Amino acid sequence: MASVSVYTIVEYVRFVDSTHHQRSTDDPSIDWWRQAVVYQIYVRSFADGNGDGIGDIAGMTSRLDHLQRLGVDAVWVNPWYRSPLLDGGYDVADYREINEQFGTTAEAERFIADAGARGIRTIVDLVPNHTSWEHPWFRAALAADPASPERSRYHFLDGRGASGELPPNDWRSVFGGPAWTRVDDGQWYLHLFDESQPDLNWDHTDVPDEFDSVMRFWLDRGACGFRIDVAHALVKAPGYPDAGRESNDGRATLDPVPYFDRDGLHEIVRRWRRVLDEYDDRMMVAEAWVAAERRPLYLRADEYHQAFDFDLLSAPWNAAEFETIIATSVASAGAVGSDPTWVLSNHDVVRHATRYGLPTDIEPGLWLLDGPHDALDVARGLRRARAAAMITLALPGSTYVYQGDELGLPEAWELPLDVLQDPVWHDSGHTVKGRDGCRVPIPWEPDGPSFGFGSGPGWLPQPSEFGPLAASNQENDPDSTLSLYQSALAYRRSRLVGENDFDLLDLGRGVLAFDRGEHFRCIANMGDDTIPLPDGEVVLTSAPLDDDGIPADTAVWVTR
Ligand code: GLC
Questions:
Q1: pLDDT on residue 15
Q2: pTM for the full predicted model
Q3: Given this model, what pLDDT does residue 20 score?
Q4: Minimum-distance ligand 1 atom for the alpha carbon of 346
Q5: Residue to substitute in 78, 95, 228, 230 for testing ligand 1 pocket (most ligand atoms within 8 angstroms of CB)
Q6: Neighbour-count burial for 303-326, b at 16+ CB within 10 Å, e otherwise
């Protein structure tokens, strides 16, 4: 059987939409975020408008056509605030000013308005667990006395040992090493991440007051909501008890520890929700690395609207595992009146086109990947990534697409050590390369000094494989990954959004299948052998079909 032309589908859906179908995402009776496709922009690596090698707001604005053609409902912009960029902007020095390398606050406002004029909302990233060490509050804390009010906005403690020479407890930074750094007068401050990111003390009234004000600042400028960074941190156990564990270096832990997923943090979330509810139509999504059974707590009616589902992102390419995760997430989000929030990749993990190209007995970890690896099957990784996109885009709920997913970009895992900028590389004592491999500037054109990212080289070198994957190469190729995404988004928007019935089907081992309503079925062959194609009309396939049916690592959308 020949593959279906995805281009035809896009044209068809656009035609139907332009004639008599209202877009369901425009239906005011449906909360827009519940089934939105949100595109994640990692500002430094998206598009460089001024040729300094660093992505910026001018570049973002220049690529709005791409986002509109892709058909996304919203963008989530990684932190764009003033920052020394020691953790890529998650070290904020001023929550109301834009980093001068990215542009100005006025430009950010214009971007929000320009994107909005094209029907694309803007979610901004809020980092409430810690500031940069360049934040005026932290500078004031360092300049003040140990018992001062300035210090109590952070977690400053005396050390242990005869002269306080040992850290106050055994907590470890997520990036590696102790979570405490000592200052000149002998006290220690807490940083669950890099030492340049001191943790804020949410028991100090200045902190919640300030974040209420920062939220209003961006909501007043048109932001449609917030992605809340490390939403599972914020509150630490009283008395700072030892965690009693060797280390959590290398990733946020799901085991109970005295500094993650504390019940007290929900009071803070409810306070934020009251601020959001002063405005129409706004939302917030939690980056909460918590066990699946704890996630609904974050999704209660007076808390977050969404929480990322990292279980799917952490799962191997396996139908049974996907099915269990999907069933759990749909049920548990539904039980608290929310919807699942699917993610395959983001700026913190190895890109899924590479994860899925490794044999299942190799555990790539989320940011521990080292290369080159002979066992990587690049073609298989991309084939599965395309099928995975069709799975997540057909599921009920919202889907987040990381920039470059729509191009099928692989991880750049052969970056030379001397270009690495992720603090994980330094903090792990040069044992973990970190996350730069998924943050390499994305290719817009097949050639040029940075494949159209900017007029000169980008801040991280791009692998040569990025050239052929450039957006302009894929734009008019009906078989490209970009066309697949465009078609899938167009069909989803027109036919799937607003469809509430969802049923997982048992079509045998290695097959993930589900219905949305009476007429739509998604079938993903995640096993090794070709499986039969069901009756009905094929509306989209992630790869050409066989004469016998659906080949391995292929997803199909069928209507009946
Ligand atoms: C989140 C961000 C990550 C950052 C960390 C500390 O996990 O996604 O990029 O390094 O928080 O802010």
A1: 44
A2: 0.95
A3: 38
A4: 8
A5: 230
A6: bbbbbbbbbbbbeebebebbbebb
